Amino acid sequence: MIMDELNLNDLYGVNFYHVCTNGLEQVTLLKDDEDFRTAWNYLAFSAWRTGAEVLVFTLMSNHVHEILACKDASHADVTIKLYKKMLSLYLKNKYGMTKVLHNTSDCISQIDTMQYMKNCIAYILRNAMCARICTKPEDYRWSSYACYFSGVRSENYPPISGLTFSQKRKILRTGM
Question: Using an 8 Å Cβ cutoff, are 138 and 126 in contact?
Answer without folding.
Answer: no
